[in-house]
Design a protein that fits this description.
- The chain is mostly helical.
- The chain has a domain of about 130 residues.
- Helix content is about 50%, strand content about 5%.
- The chain has a two-stranded parallel ribbon with strand order 1-2.
- Helix 6 packs across helix 7 and helix 8 packs across helix 9.
- The chain is globular and about 45 Å long.
- The two termini are about 30 Å apart.
- GO terms for molecular function: transferase activity.
Length: about 260
């Protein structure tokens, strides 16, 4: 997380605690978690932890995180008309900087903003392999709305309740529509579809299937590391504790299914 916030060549892990930038972000998370004790069950974050790559796209102000966390229709309209390619070029330069000492390793990226800019992503990362996870859309919308609510609580009197629901419907239906249209143009061998329930039921087996599909080697070391991380995620601060309801955001299952029909 801290290297995306303060990009620099990744230093040895044992030196992080002495780095003033790492310590600054770590202190911020410590304060946040103390003030919001239930948040870690929604989306666990820590300075040392892996995180989505949205910070790198925010450098160019091209990030769905802004409209996902505030009612900013003029920004959403502006972003929908932008070419994201320059932002992804900057994104790549950041990864080259962070991974300067590990140039032989392959990056694994995760970020909902990629839905909106597949063409830019594929133009920048020619050998990209894309994993798309599928989950009932009514569950996704309820979860996204809840995360937005808890993340922004106290920030705004406008971005609450039904407004969060309406904005989320606009944002994510647009993103999925764009992704599906763009995906059809590329070699299907670069994509792999995963059912969310399969991932939850057998995460390690699902990862092995992904590696197998793309012809990648899953080393024993990587498999063991994944096993350890998965075990750690089942208890303590990292354990998922997230409940949500569409009704809290002025939505119903029927409304969501109708909006996303055919996507």
């Amino acid at each position: 997380m801290w290297l995306a916030e303060y990009p620099q060549p990744r230093p040895p892990r044992e030196t992080w605690e002495s780095n003033p930038l790492y310590r600054q972000l770590d202190a911020q998370f410590t304060q946040h978690h103390a003030e919001n004790p239930g948040y870690t069950g929604l989306h666990f974050m820590a300075a040392y932890e892996l995180e989505e790559c949205w910070q790198l796209l925010r450098q160019s102000l091209h990030s769905v995180s802004y409209e996902a966390l505030a009612h900013v229709p003029s920004y959403a309209d502006w972003l929908s008309r932008q070419d994201w390619t320059p932002s992804y070029c900057r994104h790549r330069r950041n990864l080259q900087l962070i991974g300067l000492n590990d140039a032989e390793k392959r990056w694994v990226l995760k970020n909902p903003s990629h839905l909106f800019a597949l063409d830019a992503l594929m133009a920048t990362y020619l050998d990209a392999l894309v994993v798309q996870t599928h989950r009932p859309v009514e569950t996704i919308m309820a979860s996204m709305c809840s995360l937005a609510q808890h993340t922004t609580e106290g920030w705004s009197t406008k971005f609450v309740g039904a407004q969060i629901g309406a904005d989320a419907m606009d944002t994510w239906s647009r993103g999925l529509e764009r992704f599906n249209a763009a995906r059809a143009k590329y070699d299907s061998a670069q994509f792999y579809d995963v059912d969310y329930h399969d991932l939850i039921a057998d995460p390690l087996g699902t990862v092995a299937d992904i590696y197998r599909h793309f012809g990648l080697t899953l080393s024993d070391e990587a498999r063991q590391a994944m096993t350890t991380v998965h075990a750690e995620s089942q208890s303590g601060a990292r354990a998922p504790k997230h409940s949500y309801s569409l009704a809290d955001y002025g939505l119903t299952v029927e409304m969501v299914k109708e909006r996303f029909a055919g996507l």
